[in-house]
Amino acid sequence: MPPNSPRDFFGVKRNTAEIKAEILMPFVRAWCSTSISKQNAADDKPVLYIDLNALANGPDETLAILEAIYSAKGTSANFAQKVCTWFYTSGNEADASINAALENPAISESLSYQPMVLTETQDPELLHDLPDQNQASLIYLEPFSFKYTSVLPSKLIANPGADLFMLFSDEELKAAFSKKKVSPVVEVLLQEQLPAISSYFKSERNAVKRSEFILENLETSLLQKGYYPLKFTIGSPDKNEFSHYLVVACKLPATFASIKEILLPYSDHRADGVPLFTINLKNTSQLSLFPDDREQSVANLAADLSKKAKLYNYKLIDKIYEHHHTGTRYIKDNYKDAIERMRDEGIIMLLNSKTMQPIKKATYTSMVKYKV
After folding, report:
1. Is residue 1 part of a domain?
2. One domain for residues 248 and 344
3. What is the Cα–Cα distance from 316 to 173, expressed in whole angstroms?
4. Domain of 353?
């Protein structure tokens, strides 16, 4: 029986393939739409979806991804002209599923760029055809489990134009650092953080704290690379343990907003409505691993905005959200609540943006006037 609501989806234990299908499919469409809209009119290069775990979850997955991009409800008509898909595999097994997809007229008739299969044997000849530094790409990878033995995945991940959609289990995360040397992909992702992780592991034996330290350093590394990272932590529905982590790293505020909107219906929330971007975390020992959760609250958001009159005086609530939310867990409703709190404290007035008259009830199009 299908789940009745998004939260019901994680009411049973899910594997990586199921989580990928549930979350990636809507996000890849939102990502393609945003990336295409940000292109210059003269830019003739496609945006890229690159799957570095093609066929890891079965051949039907490749077909499902192609259908999600090119023929599913919500797909833009110009995706066929502007989106190119690459599937990386250790062999040529992806050919069959791609050929099956191309036999579907809804997909194949108007594609400007045929799907590509990237294999390890092709590695040397493909290195000179890497995406341009400014060419937008969305890369799906399972960084702590997949055996990337060639240099191509690391090169693709290191490209400044790449956004990253990373999904992995708690077991895979722990296993990746149980060996003497991490993989080249992990080296690219963590780089300068690896010595700190190695040092921490010498003194800390608690497996849960080790996992959280790795994740904290992964987020730090992504921030240093210019990303806006968002982590979604999935607990086991029937055990007091972590199941999976999803880390999405975006370069554009609009795509960061998209992944928050997609994950929001699945997420736990604070009492004040700020999403935690966790699900199935059952007790205080698990929640204690997220110290910043106490820092991101409506009260603290109001306190922060109260100090920014120069930035936000006479700005719409919607525009304040767009400018401020990136890199935080805050959603649009949190900004409305915070600004109403500021009004009640006498810090701001709310104005009708058309008449410039004072109003009592805040809407997203209300204008904020600071009492400065």
Report:
1. no
2. no
3. 42
4. 298-370
